[in-house]
């Protein structure tokens, strides 16, 4: 993991790379690279032992030209202003790549949630909801889960907002539990778009995904679902997976669901009985596999680690898993990298479906959700390939940003500049 890479600088570099291929006014380019506003605040709560504790919290609203700000809430000790700004920018370009009518936002609290009790986490989440209240709303800014948050936190956010506003507004957050207005298919959606992107990528490259060997770095929601669906829906062979404690490898293939069960029981993928051997995260990246899926955190792969990558197809389930230098290394080595803003866009896409269902108070079957998601991902994949083949860009990431930047600038131009 690179400690030095600043994800906000990575984002700005990615935008500059793509802007070089698009006819864009310099003044407008500045707008595409910086958030519109960032809330930075203190959350002071009473801990279970009676003491007060204060946590730093953030919400960045990056760009709302295409619709309400949309993006997750992360609980992690490393959450910072720049990280949240970067993640909110990636949301803008992700929503534009898959053409759903949202801008981008992101928030987080600098906290290690494992050190708090459930009651403390609830007080912290409700305190955050109160701070967020003037900024969020079904038509303004719609939070969702991210690292270390899930249905439980979304339900608390929604309940606090609805109580304070004296209304019902299930569409104020997405990623809720089903009985609180969640959508079928939401939990699996990010991993599903990763699987679909990999399937389309192999087809485009003229390779067979059936039987292809896969390594997955990071085995949380995104990575474990992608692994399971790659196995069950397209017949790929997941041979190695890892989490922050290390990895496991079996030449003939792991059982992705069984590894997940083991992680749920023990807290780690290590010690999984069906594995031939335990490996480090570095060893996982160097495995001679057909497909590598980074699904941990941003900047997990720097230039040095990128030199070690053996796979020649990478599909990014995590947000910003490659530093810009790592990206350059892989482009120079002709490794095909299919970017996060397409490959993990299933999460926000099904969040969008959830919001549509909340607003209509009419709920879809899981089958319908998955069908609509497949259509969105496949259309976006085709759009990305069209840009890749017609703009002379060096890689698929730049192609995705070209598509996205054109959509954001066009929305801005159509609205006009005022005053
Ligand atoms: P998660 O907390 O469920 O899982 C993260 C996993 O990464 C854990 O297994 C953790 O142990 C592992 N990890 C952390 N550091 C690691 C390291 N250095 N090496 C190997 N493994 C490491 O989080 P998640 O929801 O799966 O999110 C993972 C990534 O996917 C993040 O970048 C997130 O922003 C992105 N993402 C998630 C969603 C979603 O719906 N969950 C949607 C879009 C993008």
Average pLDDT reading = 96
Strand content: 15-25%
Helix share bin? 40-55%
Bound molecules: nicotinamide-adenine-dinucleotide
The whole-angstrom Rg is 20 Å
Count all strands and give the number: 12
Question: Which consecutive residue ranges, at least 5 long each, have pLDDT under 50?
Answer: none
Shape: globular
Written as H for each helix and E for each strand, in order along the chain, the element string is HHEEEHEHEHHEHEEHEHEHEHEHHHH
SSE-based structural type: alpha/beta
> Could you describe the largest sheet, including whether it forms a barrel?
7 strands, mixed
Continuous helix count: 15
Strand order of the largest sheet: 9-8-7-6-10-11-12
Query: How far apart lie the N and C ends?
Result: 45 Å
Tag the structure with descriptive keywords.
419 residues; seven-stranded mixed sheet; five-stranded mixed sheet; binds nicotinamide-adenine-dinucleotide
Could you characterize the architecture of this molecule?
The radius of gyration is 20 Å and the shape is globular. It is built from 15 helices and 12 strands. It starts with 6 loop residues before the first helix and ends with a helix. It has helices spanning 7-19, 26-33, 81-97, 118-132, 151-165, 189-204, 221-234, 256-266, 281-286, 303-308, 324-332, 340-343, 346-360, 366-391, 396-415, and strands at residues 37-46, 52-63, 69-76, 104-110, 141-145, 213-217, 237-243, 246-249, 277-279, 291-294, 313-315, 336-338. By secondary structure, the protein is α/β, with parallel strands linked by helices. The strands form 2 sheets. It has a 7-stranded mixed beta sheet, with helices on both faces. Bound molecules: nicotinamide-adenine-dinucleotide. Nicotinamide-adenine-dinucleotide binds at residues 1, 146-148, 190, 217-223, 242-244, 281, 295-298, 300, 317-319, 344, 347.
């Amino acid at each position: 993991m690179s400690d030095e890479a600043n994800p906000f600088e990575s984002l700005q570099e990615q935008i500059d790379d793509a802007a070089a291929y698009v006819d864009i006014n310099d003044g407008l380019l500045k707008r595409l690279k910086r958030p519109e506003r960032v809330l930075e605040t203190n959350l002071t709560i009473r801990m279970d032992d009676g003491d007060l504790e204060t946590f730093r919290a953030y919400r960045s609203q990056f760009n709302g030209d295409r619709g309400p700000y949309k993006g997750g809430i992360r609980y992690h000790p490393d959450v910072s202003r720049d990280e949240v700004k970067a993640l909110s920018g990636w949301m803008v370009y992700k929503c534009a790549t898959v053409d759903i009518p949202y801008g981008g936002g992101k928030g987080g609290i600098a906290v290690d949630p494992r050190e708090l009790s459930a009651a403390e986490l609830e007080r912290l989440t409700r305190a955050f909801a109160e701070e967020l209240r003037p900024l969020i709303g079904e038509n303004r800014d719609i939070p969702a889960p991210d690292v270390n948050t899930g249905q439980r936190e979304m339900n608390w956010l929604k309940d606090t907002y609805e109580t304070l506003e004296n209304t019902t507004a299930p569409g104020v957050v997405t990623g809720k539990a089903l009985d609180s207005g969640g959508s079928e298919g939401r939990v699996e959606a990010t991993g599903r778009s990763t699987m679909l992107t990999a399937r389309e990528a192999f087809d485009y490259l003229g390779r067979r995904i059936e039987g292809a060997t896969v390594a997955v770095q990071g085995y949380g929601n995104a990575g474990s679902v992608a692994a399971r669906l790659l196995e069950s829906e397209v017949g790929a062979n997941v041979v190695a997976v890892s989490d922050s404690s290390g990895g496991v490898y079996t030449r003939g293939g792991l059982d992705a669901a069984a590894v997940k069960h083991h992680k749920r029981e023990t807290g780690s993928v290590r010690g999984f009985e069906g594995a031939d051997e335990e490996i480090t995260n570095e060893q996982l990246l160097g495995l001679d596999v057909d497909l590598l899926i980074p699904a941990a955190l941003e900047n997990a792969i720097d230039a040095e680690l990128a030199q070690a990558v053996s796979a020649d197809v990478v599909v990014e389930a995590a947000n910003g898993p490659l530093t810009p230098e790592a990206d350059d290394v892989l482009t120079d080595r002709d490794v095909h990298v299919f970017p996060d803003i397409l490959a993990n866009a299933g999460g926000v896409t099904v969040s969008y479906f959830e919001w549509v269902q909340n607003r209509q108070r009419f709920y879809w079957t899981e089958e319908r959700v998955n069908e609509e998601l497949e259509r969105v991902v496949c259309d976006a994949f085709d759009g990305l390939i069209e840009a890749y083949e017609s703009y002379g860009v060096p890689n698929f990431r730049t192609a995705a940003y070209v598509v996205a930047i054109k959509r954001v600038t066009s929305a801005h131009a159509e609205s006009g500049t005022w005053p």
